Amino acid sequence: MTALLRTDAVTKSFGGVQALNGATLEVEEGTIAGLIGPNGSGKTTLFNVITGYERVDAGDVYLGDQRITNAPPDKVFLAGIGRTFQLTRVFSRLTVMENMIVAAQHADRGGRRLRNPLARAGGPATRQRARELLEFTGIDRHAGALAETLSYGQRKLLELSYVLMADPAIVLLDEPAGGVNLTLITTIADRIRELNQRGTTFLIVEHNMDFVMGLCDQVTVLDYGTAVVSGPPDVIRTDPRVLDAYLGTAEDDDDIAVS
Amino acid sequence: MNGEPVNVGPVIEGPANEGPAQAGGAQLPAGRDRQATVLRLGCLAVLLVIAAIFPLVITNALYTQFAVDTMIYVGAVAAWNLFSGYTGYISLGNAVFFGTGAYTVGLLTKQWKLPGGDIFALLPLGGLVAALVAVPLGLVALRVRRHTFVVITIAFFFIFQLLAFNLSFTGGNQGVSSPFFLWSAADYNNPFYYVGLIIAVATISLSWLIRNSRFGLQLLAIRDDEDRARGLGVRTMRTKLTAFVISAGITGMIGGLWWFFIGQALPETAFDPLFDLTVALMAFLGGFGTLAGPVLGALILEPLQQWIGITFTNGYTSDIVLGGLFLAVILFMPRGLVPTGAEFVTKWRVAQARRREAAPGGSAPGGSAPGGSAPPGSPTLGRTGSPGAGTPGASTPGASTPSTGTPSTGGVR
Fold first, then answer.
1. How far is the alpha carbon of B373 from chain A, nearest alpha carbon, in Å?
2. Which of A44, A49, A74, A185 to mutate to test the interface with B (most CBs of B within 10 A)?
3. pLDDT digits over B347-357, tens only?
4. Of B207, B213, B222, B408, which to mutate for an interface test with A (greatest number of A Cβ within 10 Å)?
5. Average pLDDT, whole number, for chain B?
6. Residue A122's closest chain B neighbor by CA?
7. Helix (H, G, I), strand (E, B), or coil: what is residue B292?
8. Could B379 and A140 be called an inter-chain contact, meaning their C-beta atoms sit closer than 8 Å?
9. Residue B15: its chain A contacts at CB < 8 A?
10. Could you tell me if the ipTM is greater than 0.90?
11. Which tens digit of pLDDT belongs to each residue from B132-142?
12. How many CB atoms sit inside 10 A of residue A156's CB?
């Protein structure tokens, strides 16, 4: 198997803070990969670097064989990487359906090189696909409602839905279960699994350990901007380095010792 | 599928349309919506007819002059709204393009010694030059957002005013004067009025087309969350620059018309800071980012301003009245006349619908959507039985929902 998404010794610092320090990560095609680590370990920064929201200081990002280091977010998305945010970001004053159509930039081209820029937004095929995806995530009843009227959990589902509009090869989810009630967490996990069976690869940042361990095939632990360990969930669960990362070692005087 | 409940509503009100979706979920009968559309189109037609025959009925030169000024502002506000209203980038520098258009048309008229009405043919050229000027300005200014963008557009404005004062070909503080015309004094204002009307109607139509297009949707997405839009494949810089340039081009044409009408462009009148403020305030009064709002704002404000100007000889009265008016608007309807009005109307209609439904009694589930016909709009916020959780499919006659195979819907909440 080849890695679908690969970061190669990515380094990124903000002023004096070294957010990523040679982070190397591989996500195999067709898997659900988890990315965990304590607060401030660089998980979201790694997402930002992959999706073009931040530029790397050094290192490379590959999607398959394609080098996408420092590609702008729109190119990354069209190349096949979808992404959600930790705090949901939907277009609040557009309807749910309009949100979906915004994400369909690649569609509606109809094979023509030149498109009429004033053509009505969202052709029948796009709307059909949007409706199917909304049915899949279970928020199709709200298609005509403004996105700002959705609950937080529904916004998470909307984010997942519109990211899927472009049929991405891999979806990066930043805390999909954060701040969401238990039933909805189950729904989200089910949907992820279902999509994965249909061929979508996932990389998930999450603090909810049950969620991560139950869902992921492979988990990578990030600490101080470096991937310290990577492996199947049951291995990660017992790896001493993971405990170190979360709790600190005995030698780290300034860390609080927890036993 | 379920018709299209989505993009039907916001035809007239534009993006800020607070359609029935928000107002608590009562379903309005589809027939009423059609009625409303007919009503809107009817109002629009009446307005257009009034606008078309206005100078033929009211021939008083003073009033037709007001009408020309008003048309100039209607067009300018619609052009401003097409960029600033849709993207949320508030420009206080559109006078740059207004003045550029005015000077372009003026200088070319002088250069080519054009007579009378031929000058109208130069307006597109004035617009073109203004649009070209907008490209580099946009490339710089659109790199920053919000307050910084506002400040940069103001800075551009002062640079251009200074240039108009100081460059050799602009005529310095003498400005550029227009030649005299041949047509009679009685209907002297009419050609200006009709050209202004054409530009204004064309701009409003373009705004409407854009509002419903993919380009327009991209602009609105940029307004709501630019970075997120970029992360969904929208080429944000290109999109907002296009809107900026279109807006500038139209403003430039209007500037050319204004020069022709007023007869002289001076640096302080062609590049007038009050133009920037007036345009923005008109849009805010009517409803920032909506289609009808800015037009309404201009139709109210410009004649009012003119009327105050001739009624009260004290030059400050107009400022005081306008200032007070804006305080009132900000206090009582901060979103502007059109959104507030639309919300009021929607509430009233929902209340009506509720009352009508309460009268027959009993027939609670399904509401206005009997049987399997599923009229447009019904699946979104059907008032099926009890409010809140778990309603989908449960209380509606199951057969009517085409969305089979959605095991998720019930469990989502």
1. 17
2. A74
3. 888 888 888 88
4. B408
5. 76
6. B214
7. helix
8. yes
9. 93-94
10. no
11. 999 999 999 99
12. 27
Task: Give the model confidence (pLDDT) of A12-39 as tens digits.
Answer: 888 888 888 888 888 888 899 999 888 8
Amino acid letter for position A208: N
What are the residue ranges of helices labelled H in B86-234? 86-87, 95-112, 123-141, 146-166, 190-211, 214-230
Could you say which DSSP state residue B33 is in? H
The distance of A68 to chain B (nearest Cα, Å) reads 14
**Among A194, A190, A217, which residue's Cα sits nearest to residue A204?**
A217
How many CB atoms are located within 10 Å of the residue B370 CB? 12
Q: How far apart are CA B100 and CA A106, in angstroms?
A: 37
- Residue A223 CA: distances (Å) to CA of A55, A239, B166: 20, 14, 61
Q: B237 in contact with A at a CB cutoff of 8 Å?
A: no
Q: Name B395's Cβ contacts closer than 8 Å, sequence gap at least 6.
A: B365, B366, B384, B385, B386
Q: Is B413 exposed, middle or buried (0-12, 13-18, 19+ CB in 10 A)?
A: middle
A95 vs B contacts (CB less than 8 Å): 6-7, 21
d(CA B243, CA B91): 12
Of A143, A149, A190, the CB nearest to B22: A149
Per-residue pLDDT for B87 more than 90? yes
Calpha distance B130→B100 (Å, rounded): 6
Portion 320-379 of B in contact with A at CB < 8 A: 377, 379
Is B5 at the interface with chain A, CB within 8 A? Answer: yes
Give B-chain residues touching A52 at CB under 8 angstroms: 231
If you count them, how many residues does chain B have? 413
DSSP state of B114: -
Cα gap B196→B52, rounded to integer Å: 11
Q: Which residues of B touch A131 (CB under 8 A)?
A: 1-2
SS3 B29: coil
Q: Is the pTM of this model over 0.95?
A: no
For residue B158, give both structure tokens: 């002062």
CB contact under 8 A, A131 and B209: no
What domains, with CATH codes, occur in chain A?
Answer: 3-88+166-247 (3.40.50.300)
Amino acid B31: pLDDT: 61
**In which residue are the tokens 């820029």 written?**
A117
CA dist list (Å): A138 to A227, B125, B399, B411 = 36, 53, 18, 8
Q: Measure the CA–CA gap between A249 and A251, rounded to whole angstroms.
A: 5
A146/B412 Cβ within 8 A: no
State the Cα–Cα distance between residues A50 and A73, nearest whole angstrom: 9
**Angle, CA B64 vertex, CA B60 and CA B65 arms, to 5°:** 115
Alpha-carbon torsion (A118, A120, A121, A124), positive or negative: negative
